[in-house]
Amino acid sequence: MLIIENIRIATSEHPTPTTVAVDAGIISSVSGIDGARSGGGTRVIDGTGLWLAPGFVDIHVHFRDPGFTAKEDVMSGGLAAVRGGYTTVCCMPNTSPAIDSAGTAMYVDGQSRRTQSANIFSVGALTRGQRGTELSDMRGMDGAPTLCRELTGHGVAGVSEDGKSLMDEGLMREALFLAKSLGLPVMDHAEDSALTGGCINEGAVSKALGVKGIPGTAETNIVERDIRLARETGAHIHIQHVSAAGSVALIRAAKAEGLPITAETAPHYFTLTEEVLQSLPPHRRALAKMNPPLRTEADRAAIIEGLCDGTIDCIATDHAPHEAELKALPLESAPFGIVGLETAFAVSYTELVLGGHMALPQLIEKLCAAPARIIGLDRGEVREGAAADLAILELDGEYEINSEGFASKGRNTPFEGRMARGQVRATIRCGEVVYDGDSD
Predict the structure, then answer these.
(1) 2-51+387-439 matches 56-374 in fold
(2) Is the bond into 97 cis (omega within 30 degrees of 0)?
(3) Which among 318, 159, 144 is positioned nearest to 236, based on CA atoms?
(4) Which of 29, 72, 136, 324 could bridge across to 64 with cysteines, CB 3.0–4.6 Å?
(5) Which of these, 430, 439, 437, 368, lies nearest to 2 by C-alpha position?
(6) Domain parsing of the chain, residue ranges
(7) pLDDT digit string (tens) for 339-367?
(8) With 50 as the cut, is the pLDDT of residue 416 above it?
């Protein structure tokens, strides 16, 4: 049994200190009085001055396993997840081999069950080998006996060609109809391949640095296509890592039409702009290189507005670790991607809540219940009878983000040295403490 005393519930509009009791992986009581301490096996946590949230859910991470484990693996990724307050994460399929079959999904599932950290689900590839020519074994992946299937009813959390869009529209329609029949969301990295080849946003900064840019239309062209295909097929399309104001406007209109469209963004898109690249020395600029790229202040403001009005459903990290030597290369040569699991809450809380854009319960919704709904996972509440996937948070006290303390193998963050508030003090999955900041 686990008892958390004197804790405030982060999802409550009017929080007062309370006691939460956990028994057999379930929240057994949430009350204003001390829970009964039964037996020598009871652990008591003093939550004075702290906040309790549902465990965060990230539906977009890259754990690089199999194939690229020098960058990350399921073990190190799982540890990074729980240090960031995440109790469920969904791994993208651009591994080697790609997660395009039940066998590869089962490999990731086997690795994840050994970590004893977060719930780690796979997202299956849309096409075999992500080559864009033949559909993957979606049906086989959906039926795989994974932890994801135990908790959502599906062997994988969704399907995606992540890292690129499936440009063959006929094959995309076929994939959408199949995914709809299985009840799986199609998670799309919206990028028009005809407009790729750049390394940062196309605009004043790319011109100043003398590098090729990626226009916002690379994203909005595919968002517009996806909305049309959702209208034609009725399939649930989830737009990944929205970065452009034009995309927000398109998604807002699609939702007003009642189309089955959901969307995510990431903390860097509502916190940073392309201008941060000019503030970094050349050997560190690739720490702010990701795909889609950081864009303008107008785009950043539109992302925040979209989060606040519900156009953008949730916050994901697109956690993408790389070796330090690769991210030290010039912008044109360095790989895309930054890590995010261990900074997401602090960056989001500092920017969105302390910045006056939204209240704490709304932020927690974007990090927990909203992404859980997208993948059909029953998580995201602190209530009696709910699964005890929880995060204990400290909201007071400013600290400096230091990647040297990360559990992830990746240190590639543009938030290095940034002052923030909001730290994860402990993470609980299925009633067990899987991360304890006091023992770090």
Answers:
(1) no
(2) yes
(3) 159
(4) 72
(5) 430
(6) 2-51+387-439, 56-374
(7) 999 999 999 999 999 999 999 999 999 99
(8) yes
Q: Tell whether the model's pLDDT for residue 39 goes beyond 80.
A: no
Instruction: Retrieve residue 124's tokens.
Output: 């299956």
Q: How far apart are the two ends of the chain, measured CA to CA in Å?
A: 23
Give the C-alpha distances (Å, rounded to integers) separating 98 from 23, 94, 127, 304.
Answer: 39, 5, 9, 33
Residue 35 has what pLDDT?
47
Q: Distance (Å, rounded) from C-alpha 39 to C-alpha 13?
A: 34
Report the sign of the C-alpha dihedral through residues 351, 354, 357, 360, in that order: positive
Bond prior to 17 in cis (omega within 30° of 0): no
Query: At CA 361, angle to CA 407 and CA 291, rounded to 5?
Result: 50
Residue 169 reports pLDDT greater than 90: yes
The domain defined by 56-374 carries CATH number 1.10.760.10: no
Q: How confident is the model at residue 136 (pLDDT cuts 50, 70, 90)?
A: very high
CATH architecture of 2-51+387-439: Roll (2.30)
Q: Which residue has the tokens 């992830």?
A: 408
CA–CA gap between residue 20 and residue 12 (Å, rounded): 14
Query: At 425, is the secondary structure helix, strand, or coil?
Result: strand
Known active-site residue 23: no
Instruction: Report d(CA 423, CA 412) in Å as an integer.
Output: 19
